[in-house]
User: What shape does this take?
Amino acid sequence: MNISIITTQEEHYKYSQEICETIELSALLRGTGIAKRTPEYIQKKMESKDAVIALDNGKFAGFCYIESWEHGKYVAHSGLIVHPDYRNLGLAKQIKSKVFDYSLEKYPDAKIFGITTGLAVMKINSELGYKPVPFSELTTDPSFWAGCKTCTNFEILQSKDNKMCLCTGMLFDPKEKPKDPPKHPFNIRVLNRLKSIKQALFLKK
Assistant: This one.
């Protein structure tokens, strides 16, 4: 395979529908919540060059985009997805690393954050230098949290006043820590336990 990971251009708009379908299908198979995207929104991110795409000789292999909040004070990476044909090859980590470096270049003063229920994403974030943080350290921009409305867990988030949910918040502050080293250790047992506790608390009938 000859996979290239590049900043999106006009020629990549045609992949918008496939990207959305792949993201939604992946969430359904995992049984996790998801903030749904539209092809129009994905294309808008491509137009502003706030996205990277992975291609294997023209075939869609993976994608991720950048969102900025509070006038560039915070940025987040969203929609990280790898096509089923290219999973278990380490491509998600390569895409995440690419978009991470690109964010530092385009938004050098921004804090980079994310919320996720995926242990694989948590592991990648940890290796890049993110640390788990309470939601209070993330953006307060209401438009970010409004993006969670299509997630199946949105009622939980609302009931906790946007302070807690099944997702784990993670943050990288470029003024606090360099990318390499140090790296925050990733303990899958601890995060699995945290996830189980949250599910027991928030999903109990």
